[in-house]
Amino acid sequence: MSNGNGSEPNGNGAFPPEHLKERFDGIVARYPRRVAALIPIMMILQDEQRHLSPETIEGLAGYLETTPAHVLGVLTFYAMFSTKERGTRHIYFCKTTPCWLRGAPELLKLFEEKLGIKADSGETTEDGQFSIDTAECIGLCEMAPCILVDDERFGDITPETVDQLIEELRK
Q1: In angstroms, what CA-CA distances link 30 with 27, 33, 109?
Q2: Quick check: pTM over 0.70?
């Protein structure tokens, strides 16, 4: 089943999608083995589709000459990939000690309440805009507590700044 943006195999199983073929071929060409291009290609697909469907996993496995089990193993190992569709803005809450000691659990609950979704549940806000997961260190310990939204890091978050941050992310 396609999500309509053309990033999944079409009805005849063609993979990669035509609009990504040249880009994917260029990535594959940089590596001695096709399967080595798995993560960079998965990142593009995750960004475009907001998840990796069973059809995409199958098509990607065939394209990179590996097994669907190998693709699924990589997909489930890394928190940045999902088999469930995520919001257009995906929030990662750091769950390591520096952030937790500086109030991350309370902030996470506040985000969950304000957005009406639970972290690590696969839930997305009704408008499809937000989803939340926890993640290991996102590399901003000096500004704990911090979050990663898509590719942008935010630190020194306080309960007083949550509403403003959510409004900024909605834009």
Answers
A1: 6, 9, 43
A2: yes
Beta bridge partners of 135: 94
* Distance from C-alpha of 75 to C-alpha of 125, rounded to nearest angstrom: 23
- In angstroms, the CA 3 to CA 157 distance is 35
* Side-chain-facing half-sphere of 36: CA atoms under 13 Å: 8
- Residue 154 CA to residue 61 CA, distance in Å, equals 35
What pLDDT, in 10s, does the model give residues 2-48? 333 444 444 445 899 999 999 999 999 999 999 999 999 999 999 89
Highest mean predicted confidence (pLDDT) among 71-80, 108-117, 135-144 = 108-117
Q: What are phi and psi of 158, to 5 degrees?
A: -130, 165
Contact 83, 65 (CB under 8 A): no
The SS3 assignment for 30 reads coil
